[in-house]
Amino acid sequence: MPAGGPASALHRAVRTARRHLAAPLLVGLLAAGLVHQGIEPRYVAEARLRVEGGPLDARAGAVRRSQFQLITSREFARQVLHRTGIGARLAAPGGLAALMSFPSAFAAAPSDDERALRAIEAGLRLSTSGDGRATIGFTAADGVLAADVANAFGDSYVELRRSFGDGAAPVSLSRAVPPRQALGLSPLEWGLGAGTFGFALTCLMQAMWRRRTRPVPAASTPEAAAADVPQAPVQHLPWIGSRLDEESEEAPKRTRSRLGRDGELADLSRLVRLRGTAARLVVVTGPSADEGTAQCALALGRSLAACEKRVVIVCLDVTAASLAELTADPRAPGLTDLLFGVASFSDAIHRETASRCHVIPPGRGAREADGLVASERLGLILRALVETYDHVVVAAPPLGVLEEAKRVAALGPTLILVTQPGARTTDAVQAFDALAARGFGDIAMVTFADPVPGRLPHAA
Fold first, then answer.
1. Domain of residue 163, CATH code
2. Given this model, what pLDDT does residue 106 score?
3. Does 223 map to a domain?
């Protein structure tokens, strides 16, 4: 049979179950055993006395109730113990006391009679009524013992009345019957409950301990990132619209026809579509604050929407004038309202009239991009949008200079770095390295051809 066959899978499953369930099972069984032995069932048996005779007046009823009180006296209890010999059964320890009892040489224990008297005082109950009736109840861990004690007290009282020759008001006894049902839960039920609780608690503590001792991923902290664990490689996506400004003397000169803005935008839109789910979140930024970065994000979103994609443009760069003009009302709710929790998604998402895009404008409130990038709610908002749209295009401020940009990088976006036409290649490379240092992995660079005033085209 191959090594990865059913026998091997069964062996791994048994080994995993043994490693994870051994301790919870042991704790559950121990808790169930201790509680089962420590909890004693409580049975109540009742014997009834009745004084024979005609109706009683109030004075006679009070006299007979006082006579019944003799049953609860300690001296009467001693007489019952000596007469019936039931004291040995009452003095026997039960439950954990029987397992943990110490010899008399190590601990001074009360005598059997004293233990029996204490058991009688704890379990004996007497209730009387004005019509010459009394109920002797006794509670014990054994139903037969409870009935025997109640009957012993009833028989002793009847014998006492006869010995004094009180024939004018004879007393009849209805003997107690051993009860079948204990009061409350049985020891077995208590033990099962304690075992289940111990098992569940141990499983929870194991899960918390494994989570606490789980090794931290390499990219979670700067210290771990600087350790020997290799980081995920940075993927340099194609540089759209680039031109070699500096040539090597050894290498032959390479020529490249420069496309117009429409062609470069089409290349960028095609790149995002080809990446599919890897480019559901697209962040457009630049090495420095520039209106062209916001225009590139708008043009990219409109181009993707023209290809029957569900697209939303998120205006994170609150200083770009072109982003503030996306809605008819400049004070319409937007991203800042979402971050501050004063608006819902339905309030902040608007339909752009010039295309099929949805847009989240900058919104009202703070106008500092640094604080918005550092917000913890930004990641939650972008994750929720990614679950709804095919592409979420974020028009972002320069992220290479923001330490808080690591929060955005942790979302794993496809990053578009928009460089200025005519800029030096070394400046673009430095901007690329700065973004890579913030944790961005998939970076595409785009340099549009000759700048022209106005907005970029709506679609490729």
1. 3.30.70.1130
2. 43
3. no
Structural domain contains residue 289: yes
- What is the average per-residue pLDDT within 221-244? 50
Based on the structure, what is the number of domains in the chain? 2
415, 442 contact by CB (below 8 A): yes
Range of the domain at 129: 43-94+111-174
Contact call for residues 16 and 175 (beta carbons, < 8 A): no
The backbone torsions φ and ψ at residue 33, rounded to the nearest 5 degrees and listed phi first, read: -65, -45
List the structure tokens of 280: 């559901």
**pLDDT at position 456:** 47
Report the candidate in 265, 219, 280, 294 with the shortest Cα–Cα distance to residue 447: 265
Spatial CA neighbour of 64 closest among 159, 168, 163: 168
Which pTM value belongs to this model?
0.46
Looking at the fold, whether 266 and 406 belong to one and the same domain comes out as yes
Q: Are residues 266 and 170 in the same domain?
A: no
Give whole-number Cα distances, 162 to 75, 156, 158, 192, 376, in Å: 18, 10, 6, 51, 89
* Cα angle: 120, vertex 122, 127; to 5 degrees: 80
- 253 contacts 247 by C-beta, under 8 angstroms: yes
* Residue at 297 is within a domain: yes
CA angle 286, 304, 412 (to 5 degrees): 55
CB neighbours of 235 closer than 8 A, spacing ≥ 6?
Answer: 441, 442, 443
Name residue 283's amino acid.
Answer: V
**pLDDT for the residue numbered 453:** 43
In terms of residues, how long is the chain?
460
Nearest to 459, CA basis, from 239, 291, 261, 241: 261
The larger pLDDT score, comparing residue 112 to residue 177, is at 177
